[in-house]
Here is the input.
Amino acid sequence: MHHTRLKDLVESVGGRLEGDPDILLSGIAPLESATASHITFLSNPKLRSQVKHTKAAALILTASDSASIAGDFPGARVITDAPYVYFAKAAQYFAEKARVPVAPGIHSDANVAATAKIARSAYIGPFVSVEEEAEIGENCIIEAGSFIGRGAKIGSNTHFHARVSLLALCQIGESCIVHSGAVIGADGFGFANEKGKWIKIPQTGRVVIGNDVEIGANTTIDRGAMADTVIEDGVKLDNQIQIGHNCHIGAHTAMAGCVGVAGSAKIGKYCTFGGAAMVLGHLTIVDNVHISSGSMVSRSILEPGQYTGFYPLAKNAEWEKSAVIVRNLASMREKIRELEKALKSIGHDKNEQP
Amino acid sequence: MHHTRLKDLVESVGGRLEGDPDILLSGIAPLESATASHITFLSNPKLRSQVKHTKAAALILTASDSASIAGDFPGARVITDAPYVYFAKAAQYFAEKARVPVAPGIHSDANVAATAKIARSAYIGPFVSVEEEAEIGENCIIEAGSFIGRGAKIGSNTHFHARVSLLALCQIGESCIVHSGAVIGADGFGFANEKGKWIKIPQTGRVVIGNDVEIGANTTIDRGAMADTVIEDGVKLDNQIQIGHNCHIGAHTAMAGCVGVAGSAKIGKYCTFGGAAMVLGHLTIVDNVHISSGSMVSRSILEPGQYTGFYPLAKNAEWEKSAVIVRNLASMREKIRELEKALKSIGHDKNEQP
Amino acid sequence: MHHTRLKDLVESVGGRLEGDPDILLSGIAPLESATASHITFLSNPKLRSQVKHTKAAALILTASDSASIAGDFPGARVITDAPYVYFAKAAQYFAEKARVPVAPGIHSDANVAATAKIARSAYIGPFVSVEEEAEIGENCIIEAGSFIGRGAKIGSNTHFHARVSLLALCQIGESCIVHSGAVIGADGFGFANEKGKWIKIPQTGRVVIGNDVEIGANTTIDRGAMADTVIEDGVKLDNQIQIGHNCHIGAHTAMAGCVGVAGSAKIGKYCTFGGAAMVLGHLTIVDNVHISSGSMVSRSILEPGQYTGFYPLAKNAEWEKSAVIVRNLASMREKIRELEKALKSIGHDKNEQP
Here is the structure.
């Protein structure tokens, strides 16, 4: 177990320290599970009342929350504008201290083509294949069983977990993380139909991924048909996501698990997609659009905001009733029109009465 | 082809045998495809009329169905309260007889770290990586290309098919089955947002899986952020499922293919989820809840029962009509309110007439 | 860069050549990005006006479009009835010219069982496992890290990308393409329930796949419970698709990414499924049915046509209103009935007035 003085954490991550700078910390934990060797954080003002029960040695919080809780917390405080961001950075600080170092070098059970270029400081694990003319940058970690195709390029400090595929000619930038089972650069789904049979359209574009991108387990990103599929800097993709060929995903957009994006969709920057949201192909979504989980985007979205479209859950018996009516809404509308007409005619009759 | 005497099957699986105990059986098959060397089963009373056409040598059924079919079936009978359960157990019996045995030992093309502990009776296939301090129990079968991370633990009698990932420090119990391509213990999807950019929250929890759990092909279960993701005993997960970080899934809950569960969802015991059902994060589902396929669970469910929420399928032209109305239901409701008002005012007028 | 004379392309792919047969072509590109060494195509008459701006040396189009654009394009023309199909075939022609040849043979880092049969012209990459009695046909390419189970069979000219699993006894035909991470033949999801616990039903059927089938990255196709799961000739499956046990998918049916098909569904020929469409188990879909993206097929479809069922997307605030009403449609219907009754009674009263 590594221990850090509070002052060293604050020196590294920032914030204003109030209290004993020499407290020894083993890590960071939520209010309710923190022990006496932890620093904790108050990011949600609703949890203020829990502060008096935490056993943590130190607390990250805003100046205003610090004033509110007054003497409820006897330990040290770190004052910051954004406690949740501070929590993330402090957690990174502790994780880095606890990290098991990986020795550079090519494992004797790896298979590296003669023309591949591997940086000296990179680690290539057992059963990794690196094909001709592939390039792997400084400090990369390529774990067991991964596949780096012919001419593919990986920027420095990028980490591939076990069993990742990066196919021929595709490239990914610096400081990316790709989780186990992800497949980058499989063929896009492109066919011409000739009298019922599908004629394959060769997928000759690449996948081009920026820096600081994270790609989840078993996520797939298809190569372009002729042009490239592009994922800009800072994009975060969760697990089991499918990105179709020739998509363009703007910087810092994040997608939760099971999202699907059909081919040639152009998605802006700073967007978020809830789990299992789906996007049809050949449409445009501007910056700062937020799609709720389980929602189908079937046309372009040209105005920022939150969009939703899923059928509300109900007890099965109630759903069965509502679903039947949904299927017959056109007849319900017709009835309403008839009622309006009938009422109008009665009104007229009434008015015409002497 | 292995053959079993009926009496040996009944001795192993149970039930009351009526008829010739020495019939030789090669396996179990449905009523319509069984041949003279098969035992078959009647689990659905609606299929009683098919009994007279089956060629099977023996029949598993309830006492009541046995009385109903009277002389329609000339072969041997096995009487049981639960013929479908009996079918499953008999099928296991025959599958076990037909199983190609796996010789214990570590394949010469595996890569096993010096500090890993592998039980003598376990099989480790080619191109399997077992990292430092991992532990693999008695009679485990770890097939080709699987990855067992640092400090991960696998209980006895557990079977990993080819190309499974179990990441560092995660653990799985006894008698589990994990299918090809599954990824257990990838990072959960956790970020803090700092002025539009995503700051990664290290995922330092584990995945902890009980006994008798089955995990489908290409299913992903993320490790916890700080605490663990927990899958209790007897849970059955089909293919392509995504379980987010810090979820807790109660014992004997089953999920069909393509289900997604967002982070920190707490799901009870004995629940079932139809294919592609989705569960939002940070909510609670009590025991014995059944979610229909394609339904989105967007709030906690605190009462057992069946819940559904998907848009009913229709011919496209009809759907287009109903979808337009669904988007404008608020205006339909408004029209109805106006009609009600108008009618009321007419009623008043009418009553006021002399 | 390979260059081809236009006449050689036309000789191989067909069509009527108008103009200089000796133009040298490096490849095919869309109207707007084609350069002077490209052939391009006009498959959508709406794009006719772009023809005058393209820099391409040659143009594929219909006779009627050729007449329409008159002198707008000065280069060579290839006249065909189906320019998009011609584009696909021409792209294949160029891709084949540019293909990096794969030398036949078994890589020294592969693991091939003694009883496996590998055609001389096949390529088996590093870290591929081929188990006992498996068969791999002529000109097959089996890339790094793939797993071919005991007794599995692969027809000639089939290409497995890196890290594919084909499990024991399953078979796939000729000229198929299977993308990275696909799993063919994992156990179907079959259990009997005994007092809350799930008893596994051994999955002893196979997956049997025809010729000219393409299977996307991380797609999973489960083996049958007792009978087989069948995928007929020419089926095209995109990424992240789940096909349950004992499904039967008819020839030339295509499914886009993230589709899920539950067990024992019988799907006809020439069907198409949009992304994330879901099909419940034990139902029948006839030939020439087209399911829109995000739609749930919850009952058999016995009539060809296009079917749809997803909740229309709206701004979140609007969706919240419509979703509340959808949940209470039964009460809305009740109000309409009351209005109809009230109106009728007023009508009667009115008629009864002297």
About this structure: Chain A is about 20% helix and 30% strand. The radius of gyration of chain A is 28 Å. Chain A has three domains: 4-98, 105-307, 317-352. Chain A touches chain C through 71 residues (CB under 8 Å).
